[in-house]
Automatic annotation (TrEMBL):
Places the protein is found: Membrane
InterPro entries xref list: RUS_fam, UVB_sens_RUS_dom
The protein's name: Protein root UVB sensitive/RUS domain-containing protein
Tree of life domain: Eukaryota
PANTHER family: RUS FAMILY MEMBER 1, RUS1 FAMILY PROTEIN C16ORF58
Short name of one Pfam family: UVB_sens_prot
Location of the Protein root UVB sensitive/RUS domain: 73-308
Lineage: Eukaryota, Fungi, Dikarya, Ascomycota, Pezizomycotina
Family: Belongs to the RUS1 family.
Organism whose genome encodes this protein: Staphylotrichum longicolle
This protein's record includes keyword Transmembrane helix: yes
Any one of the GO CC terms: membrane
Length: 479
């Protein structure tokens, strides 16, 4: 009885087919042909055999009854798939291709603007001017590089943990920093020495901020795209894509730099290319459909459930979320008459913040302490999570729920509203578990904590005496 043998990719698609009409051990005799066939097939998509592909059969000379079937691919498609992850599209998310397309276009525009900006910097440093001092230019360069490196360290320390939950925002912000630095570079030829020093330092700081934000946000996005543990390969292929795009941009940019000398035309061209650059970058991050729930996405999902009792998918939320606004905990009441903000903090921050003129209410659950401050049409919430709470998603749901019912709460009096055993809009833990199960079924990843943008701090509640670690624990939380 004859048997067929197949090489398949992670998605189960056939890459190579081997038909054996004789002894199984004799298959080793055609190992060279097999490797050639597999190499040819790896360069095609997992849907080999579709339009534009053709299959050929090669019968080995040592065993006429055995032959192998391989897939050949046109050169253009082979080159294209050399820049895509192996097993594409089954090994990456559905939004990968749209993001990479827009990202390549914005990188092309950025390559041209960087050449125009670099030419202006060289002119500002005195290249081509016999009266300029090389020592002065060196001091300008060293000063700018030194301060930019310090800015890199400070920014990474201050904002490092906030980048991953808000990776789409910081990916776009990075290019805002980069374009701002390039426009500052255009000013350097027209400025005297000390103002020029200030501009060079400022541009260097903006570039360092761009580097931290871009690299960290790209790492988070790559982790989102990788489905089969292929993060390293995905980053390698992205580097190949950027290399090709940068080479094309440098080629076109070299022609532009040689042809465009007039300062006014340079500024007009920079404005146009920067607009293209930012537009493509905005479309790239808009195309990404993150599966983790940061503050904005969680608020959108929970508000939809409170309004209509339905659960939104990551694709639907991606169409609603804002890239530049409402990303840090903005909340509103059902009517929209009351707007506010919610944040996570320590127990001391929650107890110690007492702004004048605000009405305050404090309460405690088994998982957290919450403080609510209100004045006029604005409110502020702060949550201090208790020890043992790993994911603050349930606490954030309660914050959104409180804000949603703020209109009714104020009509009854904020104090009396929350002193009831089950205030208006109360959702039990069992109901929340049902909601979270529906979120998981809808494609959301609830294991990732994308709500806390600072070092997670928890409150340990004990009898008020110092524990064996020497730390003073909290007794009764509210007098």
């Amino acid at each position: 009885m004859s048997r067929n043998f197949y090489d398949i990719d992670p998605a189960g698609e056939v890459l190579c087919t081997y038909t054996d009409g004789g002894e199984k051990e004799r298959l080793k005799a055609v190992s060279v042909d097999v490797s050639i066939s597999c190499f040819s097939s790896v360069l095609v998509s997992p849907t080999a055999g579709s339009i534009g592909l053709r299959k050929s059969r090669r019968r080995p000379t040592d065993h006429p009854s055995r032959y192998q079937e391989k897939t050949e691919v046109p050169l253009a498609k082979a080159i294209l798939y050399a820049f895509l992850p192996a097993g594409y599209p089954h090994t990456v998310t559905d939004d990968y291709l749209a993001y990479q397309t827009y990202d390549s276009l914005q990188a092309f525009a950025s390559s041209i603007t960087s050449l125009l900006a670099n030419r202006a910097v060289l002119e500002g440093l005195g290249v081509g001017d016999s009266s300029s001092s090389p020592t002065g230019a060196l001091i300008l360069k060293i000063t700018g590089d030194t301060i930019s490196r310090i800015a890199t360290i400070l920014f990474a320390h201050r904002m490092g943990q906030a980048i991953e939950p808000e990776c789409k925002f910081y990916r776009f912000l990075a290019d805002l920093f980069n374009d701002s630095a390039q426009f500052l570079d255009l000013l350097t030829p027209a400025l005297p020495y000390f103002p020029k020093l200030g501009v060079i330092v400022s541009a260097g700081v903006l570039r360092s901020l761009c580097g931290v934000a871009a690299n960290a946000s790209k790492a988070s996005l790559s982790a989102h795209f990788a489905l089969t543990g292929n993060l390293a390969e995905l980053n390698a292929k992205e580097a190949s894509q950027e290399t090709v795009v940068s080479l094309l941009g440098m080629l076109v940019g070299s022609l532009v730099v040689r042809m465009v000398e007039d300062k006014q035309v340079v500024w007009m061209l920079m404005v146009f290319l920067a607009g293209v650059h930012l537009t493509m970058n905005y479309r790239a991050v808009r195309a990404v459909r993150m599966r983790s729930l940061n503050r904005q996405r969680a608020t959108i999902v929970f508000r939809e459930w409170l309004d209509h009792g339905t659960v939104l998918t990551p694709e639907q939320v991606a169409q609603r979320e804002s890239i530049l606004r409402d990303g840090r905990g903005n909340l509103t009441s059902k009517s929209g008459d009351y707007t506010g903000f919610c944040d996570f903090g320590t127990y001391g921050e929650l107890r110690g913040w007492n702004p004048r003129g605000y009405h305050r209410y404090d309460f405690e659950t088994s998982a957290y302490f919450m403080g609510i401050w209100h004045r006029g049409g604005y409110f502020y919430m702060r949550i201090a999570l208790k020890e043992g709470v790993k994911n603050p998603l349930s606490a954030w749901f309660d914050a959104v729920n409180h804000a949603y019912h703020f209109d009714s709460a104020l009509k009854d009096g904020l104090e009396s509203h929350y002193e009831n055993e089950m205030p208006l809009g109360y959702v039990s833990e069992e109901q929340k578990e049902t909601i979270f199960a529906a979120l998981t079924a809808g494609g959301w990843d609830l294991t990732a904590n994308a709500l806390e943008t600072r070092l997670p701090v928890r409150v340990r509640v004990a009898d008020g005496r110092k524990d064996r670690h020497g730390t003073c624990n909290v007794g009764l939380p509210w007098e």
